[in-house]
Q: What sequence folds into this?
């Protein structure tokens, strides 16, 4: 079973949902495609979408909603099961 | 002098925290930098007499956390809070909490903050003080006939706006009565669909508007103005390049505008530094009040340079209970000043944020040059807050001298380690329309679109 890691190219704050009241973009166990948005990264008040980058099933999030992140950090893992 | 303030807590970060600490030091007031965990190595934390950590990097856990800030007052024994700009600076609940804790809020009363923060209430307050507002129909309109009647006093061209709307949705333009009759039912339907409420109102459309604002200072009894600033060069409603005075007003227009601002401030019993923002119709020469900012503004230094008055020190003196020492006739307009905002954004990548570590850092020097910044060599600019790095502010005997000095200041500046908007200012200063002041609030964005297509112009 191959594993893919979703890595942030940006520093900032990671969000799993579009606003405090909305649902998470994806949950652990969800099937995603390379273009599926899995979270938002806020850098200096500007928001960028983070996409899965590969197809598969979300096996884990390594960062919580609202956590600070650094470039190169692993945000989530996918497996291709 | 300022015996009312024996220790000042700075509830902010970045360049404005540094600016406030400098003003407090000049008045001999000890300071506390209240900062997030991400700002422990900041210039403000290095300069302040004490540092108090509010919480984690996220603003809602630190700079927007009222409970943590009131806790900081108690823990440090500070008896006054300067809120700077942004964050909680216009939050009436915060001002109230500071007063309830027995401390001084450096700014107007919670009631004034609340009143001017409510758009409709601010408009009514301005009208009551005889200050012109953008002509509009007061009431919600439901049929074409009442709209046509209201349009007679609003004037054409006008906008039909959804009463329940916002964010630019449900807005239609009408150039004439004929067009209003056609567009009105459409606007109603759109409003009904988008907001579940078909009520609309009319507002004069100003096609070529300049953003002109007046700086005021009040002590609760009396107010004075420090002339106007023009901030028409904006991108996504963020000011980029500001100047004082406006290059287009006649002396008569300047007096009328600034006197209207003083009238409004005095009608509020305004205490502290404030800014009244106006739209100036470039075609008719009319000006209209749009809103008041009840705090210090990012572009305040240009007003300081043309008047010689230190606004942040004045705020502290007023907050400490001193009456305004100044008469209006003491305040003279001397020369011209411009401010260039350096942001950690990459103009070549559609202004994408560019946090990083400051490597080479050289600031300009020379007559009339001032730099307000929190950067130092080796400083790591955190990604969690806004991207303002520094403000290059330049004064000259007249506007052309100020612009010439500004070009030289940009050329002298070196900043590596991150992308910044320094190069944008270098390009702007080469544009003939900047030198002739032939611009309005749409000019910069239009120019940026044309400019990005054509490579380096």
A:
């Amino acid at each position: 079973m191959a594993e893919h890691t979703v890595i942030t190219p940006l520093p900032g704050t990671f969000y799993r949902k579009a606003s405090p009241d909305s649902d998470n973009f994806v949950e652990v166990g969800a099937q995603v495609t390379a273009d599926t948005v899995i979270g938002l990264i806020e850098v200096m008040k500007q928001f960028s979408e983070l996409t899965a980058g590969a197809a598969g099933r979300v096996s884990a999030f390594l960062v919580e909603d609202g956590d600070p992140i650094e470039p190169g950090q692993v945000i989530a893992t996918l497996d291709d099961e | 002098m300022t015996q009312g303030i024996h220790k000042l807590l700075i509830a902010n970060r970045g360049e404005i925290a540094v600016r406030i600490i400098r003003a407090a030091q000049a008045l001999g007031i000890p300071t506390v930098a209240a900062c997030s965990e991400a700002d422990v190595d900041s210039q403000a934390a290095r300069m302040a007499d004490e540092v108090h950590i509010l919480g984690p990097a996220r603003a809602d856990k630190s700079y927007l956390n009222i409970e943590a800030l009131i806790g900081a007052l108690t823990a440090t024994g500070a008896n006054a809070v300067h809120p700077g700009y942004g964050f909680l600076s216009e939050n009436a609940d915060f001002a109230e909490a500071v007063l309830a804790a027995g401390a001084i809020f450096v700014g107007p009363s919670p009631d004034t903050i609340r009143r001017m923060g409510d758009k409709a209430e601010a408009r009514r307050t301005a009208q009551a003080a005889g200050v012109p507002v953008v002509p509009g129909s007061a009431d919600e309109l439901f049929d074409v006939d009442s709209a046509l009647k209201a349009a007679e006093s609003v004037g054409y061209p006008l906008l039909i706006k959804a009463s329940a709307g916002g964010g630019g949705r449900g807005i239609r333009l009408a150039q004439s009565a004929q067009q209003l009759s056609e567009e009105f039912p459409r606007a109603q339907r759109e409003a009904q669909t988008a907001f579940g409420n078909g009520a609309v109102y009319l507002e004069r459309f100003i096609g070529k508007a300049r953003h002109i604002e007046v700086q005021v200072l009040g002590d609760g009894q009396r107010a004075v103005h420090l002339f106007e600033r023009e901030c028409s060069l904006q991108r996504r409603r963020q000011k980029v390049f500001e100047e004082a005075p406006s290059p287009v007003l006649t002396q008569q227009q300047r007096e009328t505008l600034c006197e209207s601002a003083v009238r409004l401030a005095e009608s509020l019993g305004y205490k502290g530094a404030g800014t009244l923002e106006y739209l100036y119709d470039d075609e008719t020469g009319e000006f209209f009040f749009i809103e008041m900012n009840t705090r210090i503004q990012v572009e305040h230094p240009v007003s300081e340079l043309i008047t010689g008055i230190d606004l942040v020190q004045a705020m502290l003196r007023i907050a400490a209970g001193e009456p305004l020492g100044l008469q209006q006739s003491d305040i003279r307009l001397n020369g011209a000043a411009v401010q260039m905002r350096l942001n950690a954004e990459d103009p070549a990548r559609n202004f994408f944020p560019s946090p990083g570590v400051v490597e080479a850092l050289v600031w300009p020097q020379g007559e009339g040059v001032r730099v307000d910044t929190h950067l130092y060599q080796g400083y790591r600019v955190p990604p969690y807050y806004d991207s303002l790095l520094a403000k290059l502010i330049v004064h000259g005997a007249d506007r052309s001298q100020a612009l010439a000095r500004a070009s030289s200041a940009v050329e002298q500046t070196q900043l590596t380690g991150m992308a910044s908007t320094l190069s944008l200012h270098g390009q702007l200063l080469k544009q003939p329309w900047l030198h002739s002041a032939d611009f309005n609030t749409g000019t910069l964005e239009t120019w940026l679109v044309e400019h990005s297509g054509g490579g380096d112009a």
